Amino acid sequence: MRISFGVGIAFLMYWINILPVWAEPDEISNKECRSCHRFSLNEKYSNKGPDLFYAGNKYYQIWLENFLQSPAVIRELTYSSQSGLLEKKQKINRPHIFLTKGESKRVSNFLMTLRISGLEMGKVDKKKLSKGERSQGKILFERNFGCISCHRALNLVGKIRGGVSGASLVNSGLRLNPDWVYNWLKNPKKFFSESGMPLYDLNEETAVLITKYILSIRTSP
Asked: What is the pTM of this model?
């Protein structure tokens, strides 16, 4: 009897510990988040905001919390699929809705549990790029692959330049997880089969270098 009681207590404590993290917070429905975002691959795609069913792979939680409390426009044009690239894109006129500190904490806790499996992990180390590596990364980013045509970045004097059809990459190192950037560069179709992001045949060394360069684009060190 004591064994059954002990097992029951352990099972109860297990669910008490995970429910606050796994349970979808009320804010997701109350703020109508699904009108702009997908929280699972089975939900209907929206061009108003990014997919969030892999938010735990993609974002840093501290950035999510701060963004939800004080949002800013990261992508100036609406999201589009590969099949809709030639369609007229709409300009985003207002940033994301504001959440309170408590709301942002609950929502970010939930978002960090949303992940997909099968990603290559640990390919990008924390070693900073040398001056030569940074120059090489900039050439790859701007000239070889033309990333600057879709994404905001910084020029040599720190001024923002680049396209607006993709998300801004200025200060992306504060927002994006290196493992996610690496996997996105290697195969964006893994996250969204109709992504407008080109599929390049990148070797590991090149993908790591571009990842590190992207994450180094900052307005301040």
From this structure: 0.84
